[in-house]
Amino acid sequence: MSSADPAPLARRQFASDNYSGMCPEAWEALQQANCGHAPAYGNDAWTARASDLLRELFEVDCEVFFVFNGTAANSLALASLCHSYHSIICHELAHIETDECGAPEFFSNGTKLLLVPGAEGRVEPEAVERTVKKRNDIHFPKPRVLSITQATELGTVYSLDHLHAIQETARRHHLALHMDGARFANALASLNVAPKEITWKVGVDVLCFGGTKNGMGVGDAILFFRKELAEEFGYRTKQAGQLASKMRFLSAPWVGLLQSGAWLRNAAHANAMAARLQGHLAQLDGVEFISTRQANSVFVRFPEAVRSALSELGWKFYTFIGAGGVRLMCSWDTTEAEVDALAADIRSAWTSSARGME
Ligand SMILES: *Cc1c(COP(=O)(O)O)cnc(C)c1O
To answer: Residue 283's domain is classified under what CATH number?
Structure first.
């Protein structure tokens, strides 16, 4: 290895699904897209094919755009749904509120986010109703959009029934419905339904479909199910620096993932690894989970002694995401052996911490 080679992490980690590399299907498509010349700015065959595959997958004629990441997808999509004097209702733990550095407000020129609480990271229709009805005077930013995250920031998913109730509330109050689907594939794998059942059929107007966490290197897709909302959206992406000049390198990995079915296999695998981890942790004496595992993450409370013991053993994890505690996240490439190794280290840290407290 030359000195220019950065040292790889000694092992796969559970800090984020963004720690993972690209899956072989995405990588291969990228390599194929690298053969020769192709038209720029999205006028190439790969981008057309990726868009068609998404339309086939969702069984609907929708407008498709590819941008570099989820923050851009969410904030530009939201900006296209409202004016600056509007407001967007979302969960208090929503990524658009907690992890996008104000980008949704910035790109919409000041649209305010109205936060609602809700168990396990989900927005409840009643909370939306209360928020809409609280004020209707000219001094308050008019609620215009409801944004939900599927799977949620706490690794749970919205059921079909819950989505129907959300749709009914949104329709009654003339709210557009935005779905942050950074982990949409994980939610689908968990619910085992067709993509249309939890998107346009339940009133979702715009879906931000995450490719990065699913096994791509970079890039998320934006799907406008109400096509008129996408009018002039291309200008928005260009102005925001999100129109890739060599677009085929964003879109080709989507072709690789969608054509091979890897997108759903990857998500189902990550979910299964999180289920395995959760199963191990459930055996610890007095363990407390923060949310119910339904997708590819486990949220759990660890005593400080356990957290530092794990850090010393080289395990990386976040403690500031969601509702606090420790977030353990599985990826498309997480192996059973790695889950078991982490669980074994947690178990021994857990037992010594319990002994220390006696
Ligand atoms: C990761 C993630 C995003 C996108 O984040 P980027 O870092 O901008 O790609 C959006 N929403 C949720 C819920 C996420 O977890």
So the answer is: 3.90.1150.10
